[in-house]
Write a structure and sequence with these properties.
Structural class: alpha+beta
Radius of gyration: 15 Å
Strand order of the largest sheet: 2-3-1-6-7-8
Order of helices and strands: HEHHEEHEEEHEE
Helix content: 40-55%
Largest sheet: 6 strands, mixed
Number of strands: 8
Number of helices: 5
Shape: elongated
Distance between the termini: 35 Å
């Protein structure tokens, strides 16, 4: 992806298939995280698309920096990101996401008027093989969990109806 410097959606889906094959062969587990920048539309509407581009770059840098070298981080679309976490359980994925969420929250976007705008993300997780044995199933569960995080008000990690992060 030319904007974020991360892999694009097509490459992310290819990597997901590779990880599924590896986990099947070695009877392993892994988790995925789908993440979405909360209120991203407001950045574009309030400060313009160049501000939105800066937010995407900043988020990508945090996600890349907060992952292990064996993890995969890709831009899934717009303001959504897909992370593949080999040998990681659902609980481990929640911990990783929560660390990323907190790291991002500590690095606000500085608007042209000098105002610090907090950056927040919502996360949804799924794990192989518990949540599915193919990429479509895993993404569907992670996506449903991501939208559950959004329903909780964002800045949250959801995995199989367990929510972490937001003070509710």
């Amino acid at each position: 992806d030319s904007l974020s410097g991360l892999y694009d959606r097509h490459r992310a889906l290819e990597q997901l298939d590779v990880e599924i094959a590896r986990a099947r062969r070695y009877e392993g587990t892994f988790s995925i995280l789908l993440a979405d920048v909360d209120n991203f539309k407001n950045f574009n509407e309030t400060w313009g698309h160049s501000a939105g581009d800066e937010v995407i770059k900043k988020v990508a840098a945090v996600l890349r920096h907060r992952n292990r070298t064996t993890d995969f981080v890709g831009r899934y679309g717009g303001d959504e990101f897909l992370m593949i976490l080999p040998a990681t359980t659902r609980t481990g994925a929640a911990t990783v996401a929560d660390h990323m969420r907190l790291a991002l929250g500590s690095q606000p976007y500085v608007a042209p008027n000098g105002f610090n705008v907090p950056l927040r993300m919502s996360f949804g997780a799924s794990s192989f093989p518990e949540d599915g044995g193919d990429s479509q199933s895993l993404i569907a569960i992670a996506d449903a969990n991501l939208y559950e995080s959004k329903r909780w008000g964002g800045d949250t990690v959801t995995l199989k109806r367990e929510t972490f992060g937001a003070e509710a």
